[in-house]
Amino acid sequence: MSLLPNKSIYATEDAQFIVRNDIHHDDLEYNELLIETHYSGVNPADIRHSTLLGIRSTVVGYDFAGRVISSPPGSKYKEGDIVAGYTPSGLGRPTKYGAHQDYLTVPQDDIFKVPPNLPKAHAAALAVVVMTAADAIYNLFKTPLPTTDPGFITAPILIWGASSSVGISAIQLARAGGHKNIFVTASPGRHALLKDLGATQAFDYSSPTVIEEIKSAVASLGEGPITHGLDAVGSMSSPCSSSSAHLLAQAVSDSAVLASVVLRPGTKFQMPVAAIKDGWSIHPPGAPGPVSFPTAPTRHQNAWKALLWAVDYYGTKFRFPVVEVFYVTPEEAVGELVKVAEGKRGFGKVVLKHPFR
Ligand SMILES: NC(=O)c1ccc[n+]([C@@H]2O[C@H](COP(=O)([O-])OP(=O)(O)OC[C@H]3O[C@@H](n4cnc5c(N)ncnc54)[C@H](OP(=O)(O)O)[C@@H]3O)[C@@H](O)[C@H]2O)c1
Fold first, then answer.
1. Among residues 26, 75, 157, 239, which is most buried (max CB within 10 A)?
2. What are the structural domain ranges in the chain?
3. Whose CA is nearest to atom 16 of ligand 1?
4. What is the DSSP letter of 137?
């Protein structure tokens, strides 16, 4: 490995994002594979985990697709296989796990083989957001996993900010699990697309009357109150009375089960998490000490089954409508990561082509 040229995007200890050419991976564990990265998927977390959660002195990025260079003895993955998945997070994260580099290392439990129906660039965009949506829908909301014969759940579910990639995933997973009435909020220009993916009623989240519109639609539907609500965007507006979670909570009854993609301490919102197989910790700047996320293996296995379902049925029962591939230098890529983290890229997934230019 030490001879392989490897450009990477590195978060320094003071959360600056720099390009390094000197990182090599000679420290593979017994269960890890070395991967030649072909695409790395961009998430808001790539930057935010360094700036907001204190995960630093590491190569950034989680989602990827690429070719197996080496695998452990007895592994089901062999040299040359095309695989995708995501890499572990947390304080002390080794540089080998960063996805935004030309070679990376990944534990073999965190990957899947890329089938012919799944374009490689799309495979690099899946794991983080599908695992998060799956944790919300199948674990926190307890919707049954996709089956060939889903029972219909008639009580409405509401997904706020449903054109986020987590939201797009949640709509399709909710439909696959048997939800018949899927209410969403999104910009009006997305409503037709979201209905095509499985939403049944769509509302403009920026309408001053959106809460009344949703309540009136629930009453007209006559299938009972909204039982579950997912804040799929996690906006933190000031004043907080216009945050996505606050608006969602106003649109549903007090008995609804609620989840938000970001931590909402002191509220009834539970948080779905993309990576719960292993325990990991964060240390937000200014916090008195680290905060730990415990391991939740059963939740992980359930969500992983859903991810594999999305992989198997990609292009028919599950899809991302927009995956934009950037073939850029790592310096240019930093600009794209920042735009995504600041919510300035808008709709669709962004994926970086490797090797970096
Ligand atoms: N907990 C976890 O493990 C975890 C994992 C992954 C992501 N997340 C979090 O989940 C959130 C979504 O991530 P993502 O990658 O899916 O986002 P994304 O794809 O970048 O979301 C972009 C979309 O957000 C929508 N949006 C922006 N502001 C909005 C608002 N105020 N209200 C409603 N919708 C709004 C826009 O929809 P329109 O086009 O309709 O305007 C836009 O198309 C982020 O906060 C991210 O940090 C958490």
1. 157
2. 8-126+320-353, 129-270
3. 165
4. I
Location of structure tokens 């608006």? 247
Residues 306-338 pLDDT 10s? 999 999 999 999 999 999 999 999 999 999 999
Cα gap 273→275, rounded to integer Å:
6
In the numeric block, the tokens 């360094």 are attached to 50
Query: Could you say which of 1.10.10.60, 3.90.180.10, 3.40.50.720, 1.10.468.10 is the CATH number of the domain covering 8-126+320-353?
Result: 3.90.180.10
Q: State the average pLDDT over residues 81-91.
A: 98
**CB distance 168 to ligand 1 below 6 Å:** no
Asked if the model's pLDDT at residue 1 lies above 90, the reply is: no
Q: How far is CA 115 from CA 82, 120, 167, 255, 331, in A?
A: 9, 9, 24, 42, 32
Measured by CA distance, the residue closest to atom 7 of ligand 1 is 129
Longest dimension (CA), the chain: 66
- 201 in contact with ligand 1, CB cutoff 6 A: no
The confidence score (pLDDT) of residue 21 equals 97
Please report the pLDDT score of residue 337 as a whole number: 98
Q: Is the CB–ligand 1 distance for residue 189 below 6 Å?
A: no
pLDDT category of residue 147 using cuts at 50, 70 and 90: confident
CATH 3.40.190.10 fits 129-270, yes or no: no
Sequence-ordered alpha helix ranges (H) in the chain: 45-51, 120-123, 127-134, 165-177, 191-197, 210-221, 244-251, 297-312, 330-341
Nearest CA to ligand 1 atom 38: 187
Q: What percent of the chain has pLDDT over 90?
A: 93
186 and 163 in contact (C-beta within 8 Å)?
yes
Q: Please state the atom number of ligand 1 nearest to the C-alpha of residue 247.
A: 32
